[in-house]
Amino acid sequence: MIYLDYQATTALAPDVADAMKTAMAHYGNPNSAHRIGRMAAADVELARDRLCAALGRPDGRLIFTSGATEALNIAIHGAARMAPPDRRRVVTLASEHHAVLDTVMALRHEGFEPVILPVGADGLVDLDIAEAAIDGRAALLAVMQVNNEIGVIQPLDRLLEIARDSDVPVLCDAVQGFGRLATPDADMIAITGHKIHGPKGVGALWMRAGLDLPPLMFGGGQESGIRPGTLSPMLCAGFGVAAQLAVERREADMAHVEMLWERALALFAGWRVNGALAARYHGNLNLRRPGLDAARLMSQVRGVALSLGSACASGTGRPSHVLKAIGLADAEARGALRLGFGRYTTLDELEKAAALINEAAAMQKVAA
Amino acid sequence: MTTPVYLDHAATTPLLPAARAAMLEGFAAWANPSSPHRAGRHARALLEDARGRIARVLGWDGHVILTAGASEAIALSLGRSKAGEVRAGASEHDAVLRHVAPDKRLPVDAGGAVILPETVPAGSLIAIQQVNSETGVIQPLDDLAARIHTGGALLFADCSQGAGKLALPMAADMIAISAHKLGGPIGIGALLVRDLALLRAGGGQEQGYRAGTEAMPLALGFAAALEAERGWLGDVADWRARLDAGIVAAGGEVVAPAAPRLPTIGSYRMPGVPAQVQLIRFDMAGFAVSAGSACSSGSLRASPVLAAMGWSDAASGEVLRVSLGHDTRREEIDAFLAQWQAVATGKQ
Q1: Does A225 touch chain B (CB under 8 A)?
Q2: pLDDT (tens digit per residue) in A143-156
Q3: Are B189 and B67 in contact (CB under 8 A)?
Q4: Contact present, B292 and B303 (Cβ < 8 Å)
């Protein structure tokens, strides 16, 4: 199986698996005061340091969660609850992940007004619209760094300036960009292990120093009371090593991705690329051909793991809200494929996959 | 430095070899279980297999919603329940009590048993743990469930400590369990739900009741841990009886000695020696035990569990929890008893 679904999840790196095997033997509860507990706590704290170092943001604090979804929920609900009463708008983009969009929409029941900014055909927010919408009435701006479906990189520096002018805290969903791009100067940053060759079941929320959030759940008071539940030294250790590896290999990984990207553009010359080409993480190629039935193509190309959009929404039959947001009609969106590649993808695999995909598209007698 | 004697299995218990092997198998199938391609479907099949095995070994024929642990399962149950008010026993875990107003807490007797009101408020959700994590006291949940249901209310049972050791209270409407208390990995638990209509939906995974990519390897570890044999529980019951007798003979006191208690947990008072002092002395001598639950250890507040049972702050401040597990050996218990006497008599 040729795996071209790097935005859904990534293979566990061998070094990560080794670190997890080692930590499995440290069986204490990190909250226990005795020596065995402190050994488990050492795994957790070492991982925390590694993640802060990888983020390049040692100035804040990082709490572990069960994944990015939980981190985003804590940040959005928390920022809303902490906001002064005259700030009742929560601003986000139409192309965000459901973990953000659904959470922002749920705040309607608590008296908040979601403000969903449109994105252009290139997938990028219009900065004039953003500037007009983000003002002293906003409790939060939640923006994704790299889009999970079309890979586009939002102009975060400019958005951060706009938000700062009105003292609006900014949450960045950096799930896809973490370990690959520079960390944005946001107030809160959500990341997860399994998108950077780490384990599933662990994520984190980084918060600027001084920022305090109320918990979503209650329990044993772990993670400064913000996120209860016993932490897994194994999962934290795996995440920490994955982050460290991502930083160590960043240049090599990015060069490899760039090489694959250049080749992919040539291999899929007959296709249109959804979203911006330049302002994009080049490990994502979201393509379409008019008249193509992408779901059918997926079942034709069984030896290649690719997707039609986010894994979470795959199989639901719903057209992608991201492709809709960039202005594609449902019929056009049905002809779209998402290819994601990275550290362990070989050029040979990419070429074989492209041949299979192009052949399947040709079998559908679709015009290039 | 020698390996410490670990007598804190109620905080977390070492991963069973079968659970470890199952997780390694899971690591190899790393695709996203929600992906529709072959690799994703393989991960999905393993996840659903784990879910089915978890239900089967527990004898549960309702739904199994996998969560990041018991805290999340509790938050899901109590936070998204469609029932009216939530009531809970006064000796419940903090994760439960935080959902319950102080005047909605049900008292417990000196033995730790929950006292239900004459009339249970119809339509309410009553949270009662199966086993107390600090004292090991077992609640008679089948009887309580019958009375709760007769009153037209629902029962949520936190079975974090009892699952895998005692039969689940099958009459409960919702049950929270945690893998790492029974030899599975930390980071996964489940909410068992009789009828999903009891909860407000939310989330794209777990039948629409949770959001977040599923951690399939952890689910495999959870299932394997539940399926492991439990023959050691009989031995451990003997070791715990030995502990009880030895500590009483040495001038100590057993918490809730007459109550039905889980054989893996004992809670003991050493008169005249603060628990924090005991804890440090035991740790230095190579014994890992705890003062109350791990979550609250490090804090110096008196145990709310013992307070609910009528203990004074002074007396409860002298209580330590000793908890046993599958690899506990009789020699370790004897060594601990000898150390207990040394600490009690000020010799160490």
Answers
A1: no
A2: 999 999 999 999 99
A3: yes
A4: yes
Does the distance separating the beta carbons of A305 and B40 come in below 8 Å?
A: yes
Q: Which residues pair with B192 in a beta bridge?
A: B64, B175
Contacts of A9 in chain B (CB under 8 A): 30-32, 35, 213
Enter the pTM of the model: 0.93
Q: Which of A224, A194, A222 is nearest to B12 (CA)?
A: A222
Length reported for chain B:
348
Nearest to B232 by CA among B283, B183, B281: B183
Query: For residue A132, how far is the Cα from the chain centroid?
Result: 26
- pLDDT tens-digit readout, A46-94: 999 999 999 998 889 999 999 999 999 999 999 999 999 999 999 999 9
- In the sheet with B125-129, reading across from the earlier edge strand, the strands are B63-67, B189-193, B174-178, B154-158, B125-129, B86-89, B105-106
Give CA–CA dist B25/B223, Å, rounded. Answer: 13
8 A C-beta contact, residue A170 and residue A215: no
The span from the first CA to the last CA of chain B, in angstroms, equals 18
Contact at 8 Å (CB) between A33 and B297?
yes
CB of B90 closer than 8 Å to CB of B308? yes
Measure A27 CA to nearest chain B CA, in Å.
5
**What are the DSSP calls for A300-341, one per residue?**
H-TTEE-BSS-TTTTTS-PPPHHHHHTT--HHHHTTEEEEE-
Helices (H), chain B: 17-28, 38-58, 70-79, 94-97, 141-150, 216-227, 232-249, 275-284, 304-308, 313-316, 330-344
- ∠ CA B199-B204-B205 to the nearest 5 degrees? 80
Bridge pairing between strands B265-269 and B319-323: antiparallel
Q: What ipTM does this complex have?
A: 0.89
Locate the chain A residue with the closest alpha carbon to B23.
A21
| Among candidate residues A201, A196, A158, A159, the one with its CA nearest the CA of residue A174 | A196
